[in-house]
Amino acid sequence: MQSNTLDSHKGRKRSRSPHRDDRSPSRRKHHHHHHGHHRSRQETPVRLPYAREPLGKGDFQAFTPLFAEYLDVQKQLSIEDLTEDEIKGRFKSFVGKWNRKELAEGWYEPGMMERAVERWQAREVTDRAASRPTAVTSAPRAVERHTAKDEDEHAEEEEDEDEDEEDNYGPALPKKSAGPSIPSLQDLQHCSELLHSDRSAHAADRRHSLLQDRTLQKERLLELAPRADPGSRERQLEKKREVTATNRVFGEAKEAGMEEVGEGELMGGDEEGGLAGYKAKLKAKEKVKNEREIRKEEVLRARAAEREERIAAHRQKEDKTMEMLRGLARE
After folding, report:
1. Average pLDDT value for the chain
2. Which of 84, 82, 71 is nearest to 116 (CA)?
3. pLDDT at 314 (0 to 100)
4. 16 in a domain, yes or no?
5. If you compute the radius of gyration of the chain from its CA atoms, what whole number of angstroms results?
6. By 3-state DSSP, what share of the chain in percent is helix, strand and coil, each rounded to 5?
7. Using CB atoms within 10 A as the burial measure, which of 90, 134, 197, 311 is most buried?
8. Non-local CB neighbours of 107 within 8 Å, separated by 6+ positions
9. pTM higher than 0.85, yes or no?
10. InterPro entries recorded for this chain (predicted)?
11. 271, 264 in Cβ contact below 8 A?
12. How many domains would you assign to the chain?
């Protein structure tokens, strides 16, 4: 009887352990899930300008025009010249900067997206028109079955066109007028770097010369009046005499009453603290302000010139495309 009781007791112990093992992983999972949920609560979302939404990998097709414009303006790269892996890496970096609000505020504007889409569509039309002549050249072989009469007429037309080209032959007109051109952003940046390097070199030379002069003065002073050995009685007497002389000068200045002040400082004369000094300070401030405005205007002019060059190149490309389309329509 006692052995049966022990066996049943052992069985209850064995039956309890699997249940405990099954229950412990669920507790651990629930514990980890609770902490993960707590961490997600602490993350504060970044508020993007113009209430724009964060981007992901799936937004590549929708934001391809804006991404291509970003590569052209910020990185001076063309999306057509990049490989697929490079495009993925660049777009991943663009998405990270977009979501972290590290881009300029202008990239978040809805109007910027619309302009990028228009340029992208115009580029697609241009590329489609450029690839179309290859399909036209692969037309049916009916062209080869021209009669001799048609070939003669075609030859005569080519001769007429050659004569027209000979009439229009001549030196090409200059595209740009002679004279100084507007400096670009790279030129302005190079100029500012040169000025900064010149100022740094001048300041370093001045510090070096002052240090050498100070060292020379100390050497001359030690030669004229050498100091006693530190810790000796003579050195202690020198320190005492220096303290006494300092106290005497201070007492004499205190007994003399008010310190004499120059008339220009009191009445606003021509000294540094007077009206002339105040006018000189105002003039220096205005000069610094004017220099800043001039640099700002130069940067704006350079950006405007680059924008005009980009627009002119785009228009020239569009004109060539339209001429190509007209030629195809005439054929």
Report:
1. 73
2. 71
3. 92
4. no
5. 42
6. 80, 0, 20
7. 90
8. 66, 70, 98
9. no
10. SCI-1-like (IPR044688)
11. yes
12. 2
Nearest to 320 by CA among 122, 154, 65, 162: 122
Q: How confident is the model at residue 145 (pLDDT cuts 50, 70, 90)?
A: very low
Considering the domain boundaries, does residue 12 fall inside one?
A: no
Looking at 128, 151, 180, the residue that finishes a domain is 128
Decide: 324 and 129 in contact? Cβ < 8 Å.
Answer: yes
Phi, psi of 169, rounded to the nearest 5 degrees: -70, 140
Domain end: 107, 128, 149, which one?
Answer: 128
Q: Using CA atoms, how far apart are residues 273 and 277, in angstroms rounded to an integer?
A: 6
Q: What Cα–Cα distance (Å) separates residue 64 from each residue in 41, 69, 84, 87, 122? A: 32, 9, 13, 10, 14
Report how far residue 92's alpha carbon sits from residue 97's, in angstroms, rounded to the nearest whole number. 9
DSSP 305: H
> What per-residue confidence (pLDDT) applies to 311?
93
In a domain, 106, yes or no: yes
**30 belongs to a structural domain:** no
Question: Could you tell me the residue range of the domain that residue 308 belongs to?
Answer: 284-331
Q: What is the DSSP letter of 270?
A: S
